[in-house]
Amino acid sequence: DGGITQSPKYLFRKEGQNVTLSCEQNLNHDAMYWYRQDPGQGLRLIYYSQIVNDFQKGDIAEGYSVSREKKESFPLTVTSAQKNPTAFYLCASSWQGRDGELFFGEGSRLTVL
Amino acid sequence: AQSVTQPDIHITVSEGASLELRCNYSYGATPYLFWYVQSPGQGLQLLLKYFSGDTLVQGIKGFEAEFKRSQSSFNLRKPSVHWSDAAEYFCAVGAQGYQKVTFGTGTKLQVIP
After folding, report:
1. Is A104 close to B43, i.e. CB distance below 8 A?
2. What does the pLDDT read at residue B8?
3. What's the CA gap between A102 and A34, in Å, rounded?
4. In sequence order, what E strands does A14-107 have?
5. CA B91, CA B33: separation in Å to the nearest integer?
6. What distance in Å separates the CA atoms of residue B33 and residue B47, rounded to the nearest whole number?
7. What pLDDT shows up at residue A1?
8. Direct distance between the N- and C-terminal alpha carbons of chain A, in angstroms, rounded to an integer
9. Cα–Cα dist A33/A74, whole Å
């Protein structure tokens, strides 16, 4: 079945460590996104990518990094520079020209100990 | 900049009763409008979307929404709520050629027997 796979679903990290969240899609979508979700704040855009080897910062990119070496993959690294990394992270994808019509993965919950 | 307001943080309805979730948006041009649903600990699923044309749009699971430009609203409705509809609902706004989608803060729906 086509879809978006995020891993791991749960992740624990010590302060000062970098961690990478995986996002893979087999929908043949061009665009991919990373959102952060905190209780009562909705979803906030971290990074997005419309094509391979290109990506743009969203509204809260500080302390995060991404890469887009393959169309299917858009990993997110939460660096030690991110001051409050504990959150639920959602990856999404969409077709070009269907702006806003997003398909989401099941999310990764990161907890910093 | 675009923005979305969902004035109700939490709504409780009885099973079988009708439902209306409110959404107001701010955007200078013709918006793309969306409603997404999220079950606890899961990703988001698209319920319905408005790009253009008929202002009353039908979605999955018996939901519908009406775009009212004069009121800058895109309220979600369902004539008879089922217990399985208990979830969090997010309104979102985007635009043609604009990859960044802005989400509201969500409305959590509780369904009581």
Report:
1. yes
2. 95
3. 11
4. 19-25, 31-37, 43-51, 54-57, 64-66, 76-78, 87-94, 103-104
5. 7
6. 11
7. 66
8. 36
9. 8
Among B44, B101, B105, select the one facing A41 at the smallest CB separation. B105
Task: Give the C-alpha separation, B74 to B66, whole Å.
Answer: 5
Burial of residue A60 (number of CB atoms within 10 Å: 0-12, 13-18, 19+): middle
Q: Provide the β-strand partners of residue B87.
A: B109
Q: How far is B74 from chain A (nearest CA, A)?
A: 15
Say how far apart CA A48 and CA A94 lie, in whole Å: 11
What per-residue confidence (pLDDT) applies to B53? 87
3-state helix, strand, coil in chain A (%, to 5): 0, 50, 50
Nearest by CB to A50, from B42, B96, B99: name it: B99
Kindly indicate the confidence band of residue A95, based on its pLDDT and cuts at 50, 70 and 90. Answer: confident
